[in-house]
Recover the amino acids of this structure.
C-alpha cells in the first residue's frame, strides 16, 4: 500500500480551495477512485491544505493519473485550483513498511 500526499499552498488572500478539493474528492468517488482525506495544516504557512489518498500499489496510482486527465470534470476543477496556488502542489508518495 502507498499513500499519496499532496500539499497545496494558496496565494495570500485566495479563497475557495477547500470547496474545490472537496469537489475533486466527489469526482474521485464518482469515478471509482480512492477517496481523498483533506487536512488543513495547523502550524506553518496560513491556509495550506494537504490531501492524502491510499492506493494498493504505485502501479495503480500511476494508471489512475491517465484516467483522471481524461475526466473533464476533474481537469476543470484543477484549472480552478491552480490559479489559487502560490506554486504548484507538491506530491509525496509514502510507502507502507
Amino acid at each position: 500500500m502507498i499513500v499519496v500526499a499532496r500539499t497545496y499552498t494558496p496565494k495570500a488572500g485566495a479563497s475557495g480551495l477547500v470547496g474545490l478539493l472537496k469537489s475533486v474528492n466527489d469526482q474521485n468517488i464518482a469515478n471509482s477512485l480512492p477517496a481523498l482525506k483533506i487536512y488543513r495544516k495547523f502550524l506553518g504557512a496560513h491556509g495550506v491544505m494537504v490531501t492524502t489518498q491510499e492506493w494498493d500499489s504505485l502501479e495503480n496510482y500511476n494508471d489512475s493519473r491517465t484516467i483522471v486527465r481524461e475526466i473533464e470534470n476533474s481537469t476543470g476543477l484543477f484549472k480552478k485550483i491552480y490559479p489559487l496556488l502560490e506554486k504548484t502542489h507538491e506530491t509525496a508518495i509514502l510507502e507502507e513498511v
Summary: The CA atoms of residues 41 and 59 lie 29 Å apart. The helical segments are 17-30, 58-70, 72-81.
